Amino acid sequence: QIHKPPARGPVMLRKATARLTVSRCTLMPVRYMSRWGHVEMGPKDPIIGVTESFKEDPNPSKLNLGVGAYRDDDGKPWILPCVKAASERIVSENLPHEYAPIAGFKSFVDKGLKLAYGDDCKPLNDGSIAGIQALSGTGSLRICGEFVNRWAKGTKPDVYVPTPTWGNHIPIMQDSGLVVKKYRYYDSKTNGVDMEGLLEDIGNAPDGSVMLMHVCAHNPTGADPTIEEWEAISKVCKKKNHFVVMDSAYQGFASGSPDIDAASLRLFVEDGHQIALCQSFAKNFGLYGHRIGTFSIVCDNPEEAKKVESQLKILARPMYSNPPIQGANIVNTILDDPALTKQWFDDVKTMADRIITMRQMLTDSLQKQGSTENWEHINKQIGMFCFSGLTPEQCDLLAADHSVYLTRNGRISMAGVTSKNVDYLANAMIEVRKKAPAS
């Protein structure tokens, strides 16, 4: 006779489940190690830290001189009239929101490169410049670093950056797998370019090194070489066969003239350098959040340019696949329309002229309020930033005693200075210089 187990009704099942639950609760719980518990807290970005401290300060007279974005004389963000008009036109045309090609919109890239290299640039007109749309300055620099890492001949070259330079230059190149070194650039005694040190350092660098340079409005110092000094730099770079990478973030924004601001770039191309150009439209078109720019390399001939461009697209594809379209449409619309292009020339000059005026007003106010120091470097420097010469301790005192916030290297964003706060700033600078004199 076959033995059949008793049927398990609902009551027995509930009892069995209860016993199982009790036994599970009485077992020692298994402790798993956190998968990401070893991750360390990263340091705050210096600019973000300045902005956070500014926001937390209740003082109605507080100043944020750290942000790298243009403000009008009321301290408000300014939408360029040409950008507003182009944006309205794009909306009215009901353009589709389709993917852009990997290399971006060709019409935009062509117009952007012409703006930078100039109408009479022979390599550009010959089709010997490889260019793609990029994610503003940071994205174009990263594409550049990755391209050098993958395609530089022979021993991988080191990248030389000026001392000081924009804070993102070094991590971008390091994260691209390149070794970063420095060349002398700023002379704190003269508050200008250390040409002797610069020429010596780039002359002593190994042949074929990568030299990263600011086209104009050097960030953070605002100190630019003269055209004669650029000629000397070009000569040394040519002799050493250096690969010059030019970062153009402020064309038109520095002097008010896009042609004057592109003089160094065009000089190097005329001298026969096969440079790389990292071009951003964030500052000079006020399109900060659109991440719009280009990356280009001057090549030997059109066939070489096609090969290089094919490799740039291969790099871009796994990085971000396709660039954003709105910023490209805006810039393309402006540069495609003579009236809007003229409006842009007026708009960018408006921004540059206000910054230049604020430099003069700050210098005048420092003198009128009794400072006996020479502040003429504020006027001589160019672009959005002023390297004030304030020490880290003095910058700390500006924040603590006067609610004036800037990075500890003394960089002042002149865009944050207005006719309404310039006297307050000048007085604060004088006070902290007295309280903590520079050694």
UniProtKB/TrEMBL annotation:
What is this protein's name?
Answer: Aspartate aminotransferase
Q: Which InterPro entries match?
A: Aminotransferase_I/II_large (IPR004839), Asp_trans (IPR000796), NHTrfase_class1_PyrdxlP-BS (IPR004838), PyrdxlP-dep_Trfase (IPR015424), PyrdxlP-dep_Trfase_major (IPR015421), PyrdxlP-dep_Trfase_small (IPR015422)
GO annotation (BP), single: amino acid metabolic process
* Source taxonomy: Eukaryota, Sar, Rhizaria, Cercozoa, Chlorarachniophyceae
Single GO MF descriptor:
pyridoxal phosphate binding
EC number, as in UniProt: 2.6.1.1
Family indicated by similarity: Belongs to the class-I pyridoxal-phosphate-dependent aminotransferase family.
All copies of domain Aminotransferase class I/classII large, residue ranges: 61-428
Q: How does it assemble?
A: Homodimer.
* Reactions accelerated catalytically: L-aspartate + 2-oxoglutarate = oxaloacetate + L-glutamate
Which Pfam families does its entry note? Answer: Aminotran_1_2 (PF00155)
For activity, the cofactor(s) needed are: pyridoxal 5'-phosphate
Keyword Metal-binding included in the entry's annotation: no
Cellular component terms (Gene Ontology): mitochondrion
Highest rank taxon of the organism = Eukaryota
Keywords carried by this UniProt record: Aminotransferase, Pyridoxal phosphate, Transferase
